[in-house]
Amino acid sequence: MNFDIDTLSLNISQAFKRKYPEIDQNHYSQHNIKDYIQKNHININSKDGIQYVISNLTKTLNQLKSKINKETQSRGQNRNLPPTQNQFQTPQQNLVVQNKIQDNQPNNYSRKEFLNKNPLTIDSNTLPTQPYLNHIESKNNVISNAYQSFPSPPNQKDMTLSTLSSLPSEINQTDRFILMDKQKNLLKEDTSEWTYYLVIDSKDRDLNIYKSPNEYTIRFSPPSFNNNDARTGFVDRILHNVKAIELIKCGFLDTSDLTDSSDSGGNHPPYVILEVEEFGTNHNGTNQYLNKSLAIMDTFTKQDNYKYFRVMYDDKPMINRFNPRVTIDKMTIRFRLPDGTLYNFGGVNNTNTATVNYLVFKITVMQRFLETQYLNQTDG
C-alpha cells in the first residue's frame, strides 16, 4: 500500500464526521489528523499504522462523546425541574372549567367547580359550537401526536457507517452527510481477533528501581518524558479486551561460571518457575509458588552464551485464557527456584546492560476498528 497523507487524513476525518456528528469537527479535522500522523511518525503505508491512528482517535472521541452526553443530560434535568409555586399564580381571576353540559339538563350551568373565591364565570352562550374546554387533551398526547408527523431520525447510538446508505435522501443531502459516491464504502467498521507479539527484555527495566533481573515490572503506555530522557522500560500501548496470552519464547544468560548464581558450576535446578502477576495461572500445585506460576520451565538447549527453554507441555503451547476479557497495563515478572526463592543470575549481572533474560508472548485481543477500502491508483 502507498497512501497519500492528505487523502487518507481527509477520508478519516469524513468518516468521523459521520460517526460523531454531535462533536465539533475541529476535534477530528483533516489538518489535525495529518498533524497527529506526522508528529507521531506513524507509517501510514502499513495496515497496523492506519489502524493505530483510527483506534487512538476513536478512543479519544468516545471519551469526548461521553462527556458531551453527560453535560447534555445534566442540562436537561435542570430544565425539567418542577416550577415554583409563584409561577402558577395569576394576578387576577382564575379560569373556571365548567362541567360537561348535557342537553337534557339545562340547569347544569350552575354546577361549577371554583378555583378561587371570585371566579370568572363563562357563559355557555358565548362558547364556540365545539366545546373545546370539555375536550382538553393531555399535553403529552398532543406533543406525541404532533411528533409522529415528523420522520424519525436514526438513533445516534445505533448509527454505524453501514447505515449511511439507508438514510433518507433528505438527510443525506444535509451538510453533515454530503459524501461523494466513491467514498461511501471507503471505510467500514469491523470487530475481530487481533494478535500482538510482546517482547520483554530485562535490560530495559528501570535499573534505579529493579536492581536484579530476577524480578521487575514493565509498564504499558509511555509516561511523561523530557526530551533528554532515555525512552525505555515500557510498552507503548495498553492492551484492552485481552482474550488469551501464550508464552512462546524464554531465554536466560548462561551464568554457570558465576559462583553466586543459581546454576553455578553447571548445577541447574530441576525447573524454573515463571510468575507474571497480572496474567494469573492455569496451574494447581502443592505450594503457593506453583499455584501462581504461568509456566514451569525445565528443559533447555544451549547456544553460544544463552539457554533457550522449551515452552511447551507435551507439544502443546502454554496458553492462559481470560473470560471475561481483561485489560493489561503492566507486567510484574518473577523467576523462582523450586523452593520459591528468586532465581539468582549472579551479582555481577545486576548492573549488566546486556540481555540477562527475555520473554516473548503472543497476545490475542478483540478489537473494533475502521477498515479501509482505499486502493491507490498504482495498486491496479
Integer-rounded radius of gyration: 35 Å
Q: Compute the number of helices.
A: 5
- The parts where pLDDT drops under 50 for at least 5 residues are 85-101, 106-116, 127-140, 156-162, 167-177
Mean model confidence by pLDDT: 76
Give, in order, the helices and strands. HHHHHEEEEEEEEEEEE
What level of helicity do the residues show?
10-25%
Q: What distance separates the N and C termini?
A: 11 Å
Q: Looking at the structure, what is the overall shape?
A: elongated
Strand content: 15-25%
By oligomeric state, this entry counts as single chain
Helix/sheet category: alpha+beta
Characterize the main sheet: 7 strands, antiparallel
Q: Count every beta strand, where a strand is a DSSP E run of 2 or more residues.
A: 12
Q: What is the fold's blueprint, element by element?
A:
Elements: H1 5-19, H2 30-39, H3 47-79, H4 139-147, H5 169-172, E1 187-201, E2 215-220, E3 234-235, E4 239-253, E5 272-276, E6 295-297, E7 300-303, E8 306-309, E9 312-313, E10 316-328, E11 330-336, E12 357-372
Parallel strand pairs: 2-3
Antiparallel strand pairs: 1-12, 2-11, 4-8, 4-10, 4-12, 5-6, 5-11, 7-8, 9-10
